[in-house]
Amino acid sequence: MIRLVALLSCFGLICSSEPFNYKVNNGRVIGGSDATPNTWKWQVSLQLSYGDGTFNHICGGSIVDSSYIMTAAHCILSSDASQYRVVVGEYSLFEYEGSELFSSVEAIFVHPDWSGNVAHGNDIALMKLAKPIYDNGHVEIANLPYPNQMLPHGFTCYITGWGLMDYIGSVPDKLQEAPLGVVEHAVCSQPEWWGSLAQKTMVCAGGDGVTSGCQGDSGGPLNCLTDGVWRVHGVVSYGPAYQCNLPFKPTVFTRVSSFLDWMYSVMDQAN
Questions:
Q1: Nearest to 246 by CA among 208, 216, 196, 197
Q2: pTM
Q3: Among all residues, which ones are annotated catalytic?
Q4: 146 falls within a domain
Q5: How far is residue 87 CA from its own chain's centroid?
Q6: In angstroms, rounded to a whole number, what is the distance separating the alpha carbons of residues 128 and 35?
Q7: Contact 71, 59 (CB under 8 A)
Q8: Residue 200 sits in the same domain as residue 234
Q9: Inside any domain, residue 235
Q10: pLDDT, tens digit, for every residue of 174-233?
Q11: CATH of the domain at 169
Q12: 261: helix, strand or coil
C-alpha cells in the first residue's frame, strides 16, 4: 500500500481468492503498463498472512543483499516476522511461473526515527530473510545510489509495482512500470505542491495528474538509470488520498541515498 495523505491513510485490503495459496491486493501503477518480464529483477512482493493459510500482497520492496530486502516502514503492519513472506522473481501474482523464490522473514528492522507519520520522514525498513536468495536467473541485488546523491529536476525514473491503477481499484496480474519525472525539492516543497510535507530526505516524482504510484506500490523502488547503471533511488512512501494521480501532488519516495549508513550498519551488525 502507499500511505495516503491529505485525507490521511487507507489500510484496507481488498482481496480476491486466487490459486497458489495467496491473494493479491487490488492494484496497479496508475498510468503504467505491463513491465517486460525479467527486467526489474530486484522487485519484491511483500506478503502478509492473517493466519488463514493465505498470503496477501501488501507492499513492494527491493533486494538489497542476498539476505535483506528494503521496504517502507509503514508497510510493517505487524512486528511478528513470522506473518510475512517475501516473493522475488515474481511477475504475475495470479500464476506460479517457476521463476519465483519464496522466503519467510527472520527479523524486521524499522528505522529508529520512524514516528508512524510519513510527513516526518524516515519511512524505511529492512527485513532479514530466513534463507538467502540465490541467483536463479530471475533475481538480482539492486544497485544503490551514492551517499547523499540527488537527482536533477525532470530526470526520468521508473516506478514499478502492483499498486492500484485507479482509486476504484482494478486487478492486474502483471508487474507494472511507469516513467516519472523527478520534481526537485525546491519545487516539491512549494505550497501548491507538497509544501512542508516534502523533506530533503525524500524524492518527489510525477505530479502530472496522469501517472503515479498508488496503494499497493508502497515500499517498492524508484528505478533510475544513473552513471549507466539502474539504481534504486527511492522507496515509495506516500501520495494524495482517494485519487493518487493529482496534479502538483507527485508520488513521494524515501530518498535511499540519505539512509545508506543506517542500512549498512543494520546489515553488518545483524550478520
A1: 208
A2: 0.89
A3: 74, 123, 218
A4: no
A5: 13
A6: 27
A7: yes
A8: yes
A9: yes
A10: 999 999 999 999 999 999 999 999 999 999 999 999 999 988 899 999 999 999 999 999
A11: 2.40.10.10
A12: helix
